[in-house]
Amino acid sequence: MFKYQFRWDVIPNNLDFLFSGLNTTLILSALTLVLAMIGGLVIALLDMSRYRPVRLVGVGFGEVIRNTPILVQLLWVYYVLPIVFSLRIDAFTALVIGLTVYQSAFISEVYRAGIQAVPKGHREAAQVLGLTQIQAFRRIVLPQAIRMTLPPLASNFVQLIKFSSLGAVISVTEITRRGMELSSSTFRPLEIFTFIAVVYFFICWPLAMAIRLWERRLALR
């Protein structure tokens, strides 16, 4: 029977190297979430536009992004976009663009559901008070919609943390890529990737539990 000799000392001996990748993972996830929240709002507004051509652009963009694999989109941004537009895009920027576009398409659905959930009477009351449509949206509709969509947006942050591991494919030095590099030099993939899985779990699981608790509290109000 094959007997594997565990060498867990490879983890403490290389913690700084691995955690430098974790720092990149968290920065990348936070930056992408902010950009995706903005992009998602834009797409949601396009989807709900009264003008059919504008609405078709928003719906079409969302459908294409949501129904193609994120890895293919990421590789397209990294390899194809520079060729088409004669641009130089580094791996980190390509990952930010790819994840932002992908998450924006899903966050737009969250925003749209939140906006449509705002009672119609609130909009009518804003009109009675003399607010323009833009003022009513900015002061009345959007604050309520954001409050209702905060838990789903937080869930998207958890997804982003996990999706950031795809950066390893294009050599972004996040924690999974660091693990791959360390594994190739130490030949200890079992210990290294087990540790990385545990790190992801202890980041994502508390966030997921907090989101569930948050949703339950909102449901009771």
Describe the structure.
The chain has a single domain (8-220), classed as MetI-like fold, CATH 1.10.3720.10. Helix content is 79%, strand content 0%. The protein is built from eight helices and no strands. It has helices at 15-47, 52-66, 70-85, 91-117, 120-128, 133-163, 175-186, 189-220. Helix 1 (15-47) runs antiparallel to helix 2, helix 1 packs across helix 4 and helix 1 (15-47) runs antiparallel to helix 7. The longest helix has 33 residues, at 15-47. It is globular. 27% of the residues are buried.
Annotation, overall tally of beta strands:
0
- Cα shape: globular
CATH class call: Mainly Alpha
- What's the helix count? 8
Tell me the distance between the termini.
59 Å
- Mind telling me which CATH architecture this is? Orthogonal Bundle
- CATH topology description: MetI-like fold
Share of β-strand residues: under 5%
Instruction: Label the structural class.
Output: mainly alpha
Largest sheet: none
Order of helices and strands: HHHHHHHH
The rounded Rg comes to 21 Å
The average pLDDT score comes to 89
User: At the fourth CATH level, what is the homologous superfamily?
Assistant: MetI-like
Number of domains: 1
The share of residues in helices is over 70%
Query: Uncertain runs with pLDDT below 50, 5 residues or more?
Result: none
